[in-house]
Amino acid sequence: MTSDSGAERVLDVATRLFAELGYDGTSTRMIAEAAGLNIATVAYHVGGKRDLYLAVMERAHRTERAALESVLAEFTPDAAGVRRLVDGYLDFCVEHPEVPALWMHRWLSDAADVAHLENLYVRPMLTMVAEMVRPAVSEDADLEYALMTVIWCTHGFGRGGVLDADGRRVGVGDPRQLTRFRAHLHRLVGYMLGLPEVAE
């Protein structure tokens, strides 16, 4: 997500800083300096810090929703379809690590005064996925918790990875660990939703 236009450049920089430091840890001055602009120019392009945060979150949501809709367009209500959906979500998070990072900051009460974004963006997507997936899963599966578990695990792996033998964190940048996590996620989802085994 990069652009040379003033407003897009500010959004790119703000996205990076909000993802790294959170809303509460980022100032408008920091964004302006990182974008090579003064605060007045940032305000001219996008308004104040809250306006900028709302624009960043809306853009992140549009990107995520477009990716989700693309995967759902090919969805089949069976174990293989659910697995492809999980893979699509994992691939999105790997390709756009700023999006999970933005939401993880919110999990930690960042931007607590901007409380409506989960109902505006997250809840409708969860409902959309649940409606598509429900025919494929066991009747006694807790689909809501299963969907949230995929999100929690994927975001956590993307940000924290796992510890290697030397105690270093390795994650999405390590193809072997990404493959292991994907297989683990497949098994986890299959267990949670009561899905039949699908050959890898």
From TrEMBL:
Record-linked Pfam families: TetR_N
Keywords carried by this UniProt record: DNA-binding
MF annotations from Gene Ontology: DNA-binding transcription factor activity; transcription cis-regulatory region binding
Entries under PROSITE patterns matching the protein: HTH_TETR_2 (PS50977)
Entries under InterPro entries matching the protein: Homeodomain-like_sf, HTH-type_TetR-like_transc_reg, HTH_TetR, Tet_transcr_reg_TetR-rel_C_sf
DNA-binding region, residue range(s): 27-46
Location of the HTH tetR-type domain: 4-64
Protein name per its UniProtKB record: TetR family transcriptional regulator
Organism, scientific name: Actinomadura rudentiformis
